[in-house]
């Protein structure tokens, strides 16, 4: 958790012995073990930074020549012709599908995930909370291809009536307008993604909620709060940064999910008229790259797909940065 | 205390080394430890020892796996690995010298593309011309799912108009006209296409372009340019049609059969032709040979009006160096390819959705394999 956002809920726990702990070299004794461990930890930290930088450089390196040859606007075009002498490609459709499906996933997974976490930490009897927690964690252990298979073969039929209902009653609203797509719509992908990221939201939220200082909770109850009021005034504010960071981690997963999406999604044929509808098909960044990876036969073509990958990389980066800013602000606000 | 500290240290080093070894090279070149001895026990299958690595077209995956299984049963000490990553990847790996032969659903291209000519690249890599050996013929089935319609006849024009979105319902007069007697429902036609780039799409659009040039105006290619809803790979389109009433797609025969889809008969002008091993063989035999000598690239005549020939098919080739770079592997390569091209193996492929090579093509392939050195 802390690696993602740089902040853990534990940072805020009021320690009975106040005063900052020794940090950095001040606590070192100069003994071999200290120096060795310090070196290993620094090395590990440096390795991560170097890796991310190198991946970013690699993407840029591969993408720039392809982008230079691109004859369409990369950010606003919907075409995707990457081979040949006159490549024309743009990412706007990929961006829309990726962001829309991930947002649907977040809208569904965050409330439910927080609810599950609250149930496990605050409501469930002791004998139930542990098995319930492990069951939710088990969801995270299901390989994504299994979600894909299950989505296509079983879950699709269950969601179909919901989509039909929304299309027929709310069809006047652009997001719900009718389309001819029968298979994997953006809406459906969002639901499957929600199930996939649920354990992330739940597990991290559970951890922070469980760390709510007992004094806060008992204080609220002593002032006459009901259980719900206690949760609202003590547990939720305390856990907010954790929930936000959990959501961002989950969003990152949803944005980048590949196999399940590739399996489920219905792609659109070229020249299909633009539609805002969530019941349209489309491809996400990751699914388009994965779907075509077998046919990367020229650097130009590869470069175009890597350019799309670069956008996804930047998108995830921005999401994490925003999360960090939000958390920092919240922290200042609550303290 | 000391021991504990040592343990932690050891743990840290262990984790470090694990992390490092995880980024180790995935070396997948041949472990040519066992040298191929000159063809030993001569039974029906010639044998040689060693390991062959091949990569390429997923269209021939099931066929080559069948051939590998029977070859390895007959020959102890021989291993053949086939990695179905796609034709493009297979050719790339072949040109890079990573695999012994490539499977591809089109012959090496003679025209320049992205500044490179595949045949020249292959010549450079092999130090000798590379040969395209047609090995597996995979018919493409126009597969549909319409309740109550067991027999459907389609002409190239109608197929093209369905797949480019001009014909949108099953009881369209154009379909009804050539299917008198069938009760066609008024439901919409749901077209599914391959969302990944594929040789199946390429061959199917080549067929449409050749047989119905007026109705299908787009250039043939690996990516789909018509209408419809895209699904991943053959399995994706086949299962989508299976679960969608009114669906239609183009898919390899085996997928259409496995998913119990209806398969349309195609009328190229000489009457409706059902998709069978025999009718496909007729179309392959009618193909012109396009290469020189033992380079057996075929030029399929998609618009063929020959009676009883099923015209929509793709031929996958094994691409080999005519003079092998690794002499130790020549015997094994020859033995395996001979086994693959043999009448018995070819016959066994029909059960899994491929069509056997017609006799005249098969004997040419065998001659070419014998000439490998």
Outline the structure in words.
Chain A is mainly α. Chain A has a single domain (80-334), classed as MetI-like fold. Chain A contains 11 helices and 3 strands. Chain A has helices at residues 2-5, 32-69, 92-123, 126-141, 144-169, 186-210, 214-222, 227-256, 259-264, 285-292, 299-334, and strands at 80-81, 88-89, 267-268. Chain A has a two-stranded antiparallel sheet. In chain A, α7 packs across α8. Chain A is globular. Chain A starts with a helix and ends with a helix. Residues 1-11 of chain A have low confidence and may be disordered. Chain B has 373 residues and is α/β, with parallel strands linked by helices. Helices cover 36% and strands 20% of the residues of chain B. Chain B has helices at residues 2-22, 61-74, 87-95, 118-126, 156-163, 173-178, 199-211, 233-242, 253-258, 277-285, 330-341, 343-349, 359-370, and strands at 50-56, 78-83, 101-104, 112-113, 116-117, 130-145, 153-154, 190-194, 229-231, 247-252, 262-263, 265-267, 272-273, 288-289, 298-299, 313-321. In chain B, the strands form 4 sheets. In chain B, strands 1, 2, 3, 6, 8, 9, 10, 11 and 16 form a 9-stranded mixed sheet that branches. A 3-stranded mixed sheet of chain B has the order 7-12-13. In chain B, strands 4-5 form a two-stranded antiparallel ribbon. In chain B, a hairpin with an 8-residue loop joins β14 (288-289) and β15. The longest helix of chain B is centred in the first third of the chain and has 21 residues, at 2-22. Chain B is elongated and about 65 Å long. The model of chain B is unreliable at 16-43 (pLDDT under 50). Classes of the chains: A mainly alpha (335), B alpha/beta (373). The interface between A and B is large, with 32 and 39 residues. β3 of chain A pairs antiparallel with β9 (229-231) of chain B.
